Amino acid sequence: MRKLAVFGNWKMNKLLGEARALAQSLKAGLAGTTGPEIAVFPPSVVLSAVARELRGTPVGVGAQNIHYEPGGAFTGEISAEMARSAGAQYTLIGHSERRHVFGETDQWVNLKLKSALEAGLVPVVCVGETLQQREDGATREVVQRQVQAAFEGVESAQAAGVIVAYEPVWAIGTGKTATAQATQEVHAFIRSLLAGAFGEETAQAMRIQYGGSAKPANAAELLAQEGIDGLLVGGASLDADSFCAIVTAAAGQAQQ
Ligand code: 13P
Fold first, then answer.
1. Is residue 94 left, alpha or beta, with left meaning phi > 0 and alpha meaning psi from -120 to 50?
2. Which residue has the least CA distance to atom 2 on ligand 1?
3. Is the pLDDT of residue 56 over 90?
4. Quick check: is 69 catalytic?
5. Residue 256: pLDDT above 80?
6. Which atom of ligand 1 is the closest one to the Cα of 92?
7. How far lies 198's CA from each of 83, 117, 134, in Å?
8. Ligand 1 pocket member 172 (CB < 6 A)
9. pTM of the predicted structure, to 2 decimals
């Protein structure tokens, strides 16, 4: 069975003191947790402080975004190596807010994925359709384009370590979640794309998370679905109790 991965994306939230306090609460709340792989993605400016708080705990740390170049005149950006040196083990890539609010292209996503792999970060590649695209019946087409573009030129051996997060844009921060069946169908479709690109064995080993209004009340149901290998949690990861409750739901699932 694939190890479930429960990740918290803090987005642009938490001042330094708040971030430290949340990390300390997670450290206390999740001490000794076994089963799911756990990580949080704080804003880059507090990443090293959060990583320090969480050292030696079951909670890993990741960046929310990286630039694909290793360094240079890119004001405001951080490289994969910088994120790693600040304590990140993971990085999100192509989150829908990066794509839709900041105009990040499929080509950038691909370059960032390669840069993360080169730096030894575990990439979490986010894909998902907008409400309009879903209503137009274009979900598969969009997801296929995003997955294929993201992995262009990536070898099977490297792809095996990449996590894909399916986050339908209309479910993010809206309180709406895709039905378990609809989600499962898209996850199966993504896995078939990965199998086409990298072979069945690699595709079966890769984790595909769901994201979009995941919370304690729906975590167990989502995680019970075949092919949903974890959750990428936004709003509900900003509160230690609700994030810990989601991790507990995953730990329960992992034991079944
Ligand atoms: P919400 O859980 O707030 O809907 O956000 C999901 C998300 O975008 C995680 O990356």
1. left
2. 234
3. yes
4. no
5. no
6. 10
7. 28, 16, 27
8. yes
9. 0.97
